[in-house]
Each structure stands twice: as structure tokens, then as C-alpha cells.
Amino acid sequence: MDRGKKPNKFIVSTNNRIYMDLKDVIREHALPFLPAKSLSRFQGVCRDWKLQISTPLFAHNQSLSFHAFSGLFCQSPGDPPSFFSIDPESYGVPDPSLKFWPDPVDIRASSNGLLCCQGWRDRAYYICNPVTKLWKKLPEPNGDHGSNLAVVLVFEPSLLNFVAEYKLICAFPSADFDNASEFEIYSSIEGCWKISGEICFADRKLLPRSGVHVNGVVYCNARTWVEKDRFHLDNTVLREVAVDQAEVVYAGDNLVVVQSGGKIFYCDMKTKKTAFLCNAADFATRCVPYVNSLVYI
């Protein structure tokens, strides 16, 4: 009876509006939660997506929304860095060796998409985003940090700050007092270094190349940690690796990344599965966790 009737224009129009609304929702509210490498590929989906992803506002929203562990920058003394990801199809940077710098650098620290590096020749500190290849050279510090220092980069994305505001905390052995550590802090807001009046006199010696920022506190000594939990690695994957000598290089996002026997593994705390990530030359290899972010410097 109804075969000869024309389609209801109102229904067609309504369905079309629903489709368009869903497309806009994905573009506006789903894309910012994706890593930078995936977003680079998705710029080829359509012109609207390319324009959306390439705006400074989108980069700001992505840095606020995406904080997942993306992989490790690993670097042995005297060698350029390399990047290893738990999902190479989704996470990555265009130049893992950081060759876009005029001077070779050592990676010192990382925080929410930003890297802190130090030049081999000038020993200057640099802050960069390896995705955008944008970098900034910091002023020369006031103190002599030497080579046995601990460096922590603190960057917490803020809704109101379109340009990254960060602090670099350097702990180094005191030149004036034995068995003491001093601290110098660079603030991007103030644009200068300040030596802290605090000097640490303790039996807890500074661990070079250490340092982590957790819940507003910077730790530069492993002995300040309190055991919260224990986990077991899958021996079928580790095989002959000395599990009791494993060193944790990252813990978070339900992942634990460990280095042992010249190899690096990661354990999924939900599935209890352990998988191989990459080879590390030795325990001198510096492993820095990284978040694949579009944060603008």
C-alpha cells in the first residue's frame, strides 16, 4: 500500500543531522584523547580534520587530555638516543635521535610530552617537544652542577596556559660541604635560575641520574620510597634474566617497565602479562618515560 509513497523528508533530514552531529562529536571530543603520531595520520582523513588538528587550540586540548605512557627514550653514554614504544603504530616521534638539534644532547628528564636535554659541548639545558621539533635553550645556571646530578622536569598542563609553564629542578653534590646536596630551580614563568637556600645533609646520598616527580613531591633518592605493592614478572618471557636484579624505570597507567640483564620489559598489571620492549646496552643506559603530546613550548 505504501510502496508508491515518497520517503518522509523530515525523517531523512533528521537522520542527516544526527550523522553530522556524531561526526562533530568525534572531531571535537574524541580526537584530543589520541596520541600525536595517530593524529598526524588522521590529518589525511579529510580537510576538516586536518584543519582541526593543526590549530594551536587543538594542540592545547590534546596536551590536557592525553597523558598515557607512550614509550621510552633510551640513551647509552656517548650514543644518540633512540625511542621504543609499546605500540609503534600509535606512538612515535619523527626524529627519535633528535638530530634536528645543532649539538648532540643527552636526555635528562621528561614530563607530559616535554624533554629536558643537555648539550654535549656547551652543557646547556634545553627543553623541547620531539613531536613538533620545537626547542628552547635555558639560561646558564648559577651553580656548578657537575656530572653527578639528578634532574627532574615538572610540567603539569593547565587549562588556562596555552604555552607550557614548567620547572626544572637540579640536585647536585655541594662544592662547599661534604656529603651534602644543593638544589637549583629554573622557572619558565620567571625565566631564570634560583639556588635554593635548602642544603640536604643526610646519610641518604644523592643518586646521580635519578629523580621523579610524584604528587607534587620530587624524589632524588631511592631510599625515600616506601613499599606499597609487589608484583611478579612472567618468567616464561624473562627466561634467564636475573629478575631479582630488575630495576623499575617506569610505573603508572597499569604498566610497570623494568630493566634487567641488558633488556627492558613491561608488565601489564591488569592482565599480569609480561612482554619484551627493547634491548638496553647496559645498566648505564638512561631510560626516560615519554608521553606522545602536541604540547606547545
Automatic annotation (TrEMBL):
Pfam families for the chain: b-prop_At3g26010-like
Signal sequence, renumbered to the chain: none
Xref: InterPro entries: Beta-prop_At3g26010-like, F-box-assoc_interact_dom, F-box-like_dom_sf, SCF_F-box_component
Coiled-coil regions listed in the entry: none
SUPFAM superfamilies registered for this protein in UniProt: F-box domain
Record domain F-box protein At3g26010-like beta-propeller: where: 108-224
UniProt-recorded name of the protein: F-box protein At3g26010-like beta-propeller domain-containing protein
Species this protein is from: Nyssa sinensis
Higher taxonomy: Eukaryota, Viridiplantae, Streptophyta, Embryophyta, Tracheophyta
